[in-house]
Sequence to fold (450 residues):
Amino acid sequence: MKSSVTRIVRPLLHRERPYLWLIPGLQVKRWFLLMLFGIVLIGLGVGFVLVEIYREAPLPEIFYYLTLQFLSRPMRAMLVGSMGAVAFLYGWYRLNRTLMQTARGNDTQPLVRKLVQQRIISQGPRIVAIGGGHGLATLLRGLKHYTANITAVVTVADDGGSSGRLRRELGVLPPGDFRMCIAALADDESLVTQLMQYRFSTGSGLSGHSFGNLFIAAMADLTGSFERAILESSRVVASQGRIVPSTLSNVVLCAEYQADAELTAIANSRPPSQARGESSIGKVGHPIERVWLEPDQPPAYPEAIKAILEADVVVIGPGSLFTSLMPNLLVPGITEALKQTTALRIYVCNVATERGETDHFTMSDHVRAIERHVGANVIDIVLAHRPSFSPPSLPEGVTLVTPEDRVIGSSVRVVHMDIASADEPWRHDHERLALAIMQLAERANSNDRG
Fold:
C-alpha cells in the first residue's frame, strides 16, 4: 500500500483546480507535453518555410512592419513569446471550463478532482468484501472513496422478491445483491445509478421488479453468461472495483432449527424442523441450529479465490449472518482460500440483532456460529460497534449486540469503534465503517513494515 503518496496527495484536493493539475501521476501532463513538443516542431517547420520565403521572395514594404523588423531580434522574440504564452494559458483555461466540464456529464465533480481521486484510490489496498444484501452495499459505498482495488464476493442464494422471480422464470442467478453492489460502487449522484436502483410500483408483471435486475437479466441473455453481464453492467455506471459471485452453481440455502419448547408453546403448534430457501429461513422464528447449501460442495468461482489469495484485507460482513454471509462461507473453495490467504481478515459484527435470525445473539455468538460452520482460522479481527450513546429507540424486537472485550473460546482479536449510523443506530454508517477498515489496514501494514 502506498499510503505515503495518499497522505501527501489527499490534502491537495482542497486546493483550487489549477493546482490540482500539477499533482504527479495523473497521466495527463506527459501526453500534454508530448503534444506541446509536437506543436513546437510544427512551428519550427513552418518557421523554416516562412524564413525561406521572406529571404528569397520579393515582398511589399508593409511586411517590414508586420514582421517587426524595426525591433531588435531579442525584443521580437520576447514579444512573440509573450503573446504565445498568453494565448496558450487563456486557451488552457477555457478548455478546462468548457470541454472538461462537458465531459463529466451528470457528475457534478470537476474532472481534475476525479483524476486526483483516481490517483489516490488506485494506490489503495487490495480489499475483498464478502457478503450480500444491504450490509455489503453499505461497506462498498464507503470503501470506494479509499481504494479502487475492491473485489466484492456476493452470495447467489437469494430467492426472494424480484431476484427470486427472475431466478425462477428465467433461470438466471439472482441479480438483486449484484445490482446493489454495482450501484454502491458507482457515483451516487449519477442519474444512471439512480436508474439501476429504480423499482417499478405498477404494471402487470413489472410491479416489484427493479430496473437494474431486469437490465442484468437481459445482459446475461445477450452476453451468454451471468459473470459477463455483471462486468458489462458495472461498466455502464462506471463502478469502481470488481463484483464476482462466490459460485456459479444454482444453490439453495437450507436451515435446521433448534428445538425450543417455549416458542413451541407460544405458537401452540410444532414448528418445522427445517426450512428451504433463503427468503423463508428468517420467517420461522426459531433459533437456527445450522445452515447448508444444496447441492453440497458447490465449486467456488475462480476469480473469487484468486482475489482472496492476493488481497491485503478481507472483510466478512456486515450482513445477515445466516442468509448473507454463510452462503459464501459454505462454498468450500472460499473457506479454503480464507484459511490460506496472508491478508488481514476482518469480521464486521452486526450492530444489532436480526429478528428471526440472530435474536439475543452476542458478539461471541456471531463468531462461534461462523466457526461452527466452517472451522477456526478464518478471522483475525472482529470489528464491533461500541456505542458512544444509548440510541433513543430501536425497531421492535431488535437489540444492540452486546459489546465484549474478547470472543470467548476463540483467539481472534476484538476492536471496538463507533461505526453505527447516527440516523439508524441499528445499522452501520458507511463512512465510519470504511474509515475503521482503512485504519485497521494501515495499522497492519505498519506492523508488517516494523
Observations:
- The chain has a mean pLDDT of 83.
- The chain has two domains: 3-116, 120-449.
- DSSP finds 20 helices and ten strands in the chain.
